[in-house]
Amino acid sequence: MGFRIAVIGGGNMGTAFVSGILGKGLMQPRELCVVEPDARRRGELSRQLGCEVFEAPCEAIRSSECLLLAVKPQIFPECADILAPYVDQTPLCVSLMAGVSLSTLQKNLPVVSSFVRAMPNLAARVCQGVTGYYVGSQLEPETESFLKEIFASVGFSLRLGSEQLVDACTALAGSGPGFLFAILEAFVKSGKEFGFTAKESEELVSYTVLGSLALWRTSSSSLSDLREQVTSKGGTTEAGLNVFLERDLDGSIREALTAAFRRAVELSGS
Ligand SMILES: NC(=O)c1ccc[n+]([C@@H]2O[C@H](COP(=O)([O-])OP(=O)(O)OC[C@H]3O[C@@H](n4cnc5c(N)ncnc54)[C@H](OP(=O)(O)O)[C@@H]3O)[C@@H](O)[C@H]2O)c1
What is the DSSP letter of 9? Predict the structure, then answer.
């Protein structure tokens, strides 16, 4: 497509996207550049991924059609000030920053024509991420389909119908791995209390999760149907599920997600 992307911030997310894009052959290393102040990360990025890496924004940014913002939200205003002199030709800016609203993006980078707010999750590092994205203004169909390919290079993506859904996506998919890790930690801990070694317990739990997900994703049954299939009357699963029911597991999960959503709204002020 003859597109150049400048990735601002070569940390976890910036690197995940660069390696996804290059790994899927979507772009060549010469079509990407990264701005990253940390010398060690700069060395790794240029050695492992072969793209140009700069310590600070410079003229090379000016020739990019897309900026991918992957810095921490709290440093964004300061970063935008340093970046602004080099972005006069940039038609598109994709922000991966949690809690930075479109209006804040526009206020800090007024010369950019179009903004996209995206919320990936950590599994982007292994190309199995989930990215919800909201397109702030109409894009050329060619640009939009290229953008979709970029998100697809790090996993599954979903175009969102409103900016508020970015905050909902932050709660469900952005924080989701953290919630699931906490639940799985409790499973592993219980396994160890039953007498399994840590390794045995981790294997039992992780393969159970993988198998359950495979059953769900490959069958036409709903989650409720699948749950019923493994719950015989008076059996072991029913005994455990009754505890979830008594302790209102549904309610706890709903409250946790609502708390995460409220915090995302609060942070982005959207
Ligand atoms: N990690 C996740 O699971 C996740 C999920 C969804 C969204 N996000 C969003 O993705 C963004 C990046 O998160 P991350 O986990 O990748 O953070 P990170 O690993 O800390 O990466 C941010 C990078 O930006 C660099 N940086 C600092 N100032 C800069 C500047 N002025 N110009 C260019 N680069 C600069 C940092 O360098 P120094 O370390 O030297 O300061 C760091 O390497 C955040 O806004 C976050 O909200 C992350």
Answer: -
Return d(Cα 206, Cα 127) in angstroms, integer: 19
Q: Render pLDDT for 14-28 as a digit per residue (tens, 0 to 9).
A: 999 999 999 999 999
Which of 123-127, 138-142, 169-173, 179-183 has the least mean pLDDT? Answer: 138-142
Number of H helices, E strands in the chain: 12, 8
Let me know if residue 233 belongs to a domain: yes
Q: CB of 84 within 8 A of CB of 111? A: yes
CATH code, 101: 3.40.50.720
Q: Give the pLDDT confidence of 145-201 residue by residue, as tens digits.
A: 999 999 999 999 999 999 999 999 999 999 999 999 999 999 999 999 999 999 999
Assess if residue 169 is contained within a domain.
no
Q: In the 8-state DSSP scheme, what is residue 161?
A: S
Taking the CA of residue 41 as reference, the ligand 1 atom at the shortest distance is 43
Nearest CA to ligand 1 atom 24: 9
Residues with a CB atom less than 6 Å from ligand 1? 8-14, 35-38, 41, 70-73, 75, 79, 82, 96-98, 119-122, 174
The residue range of the domain holding 243 is 176-268
**Domain count within the chain:** 2
- Specify the ligand 1 atom closest to the Cα of 14: 16
What single-letter amino acid sits at 175?
A: S
* pTM, 2 dp: 0.91
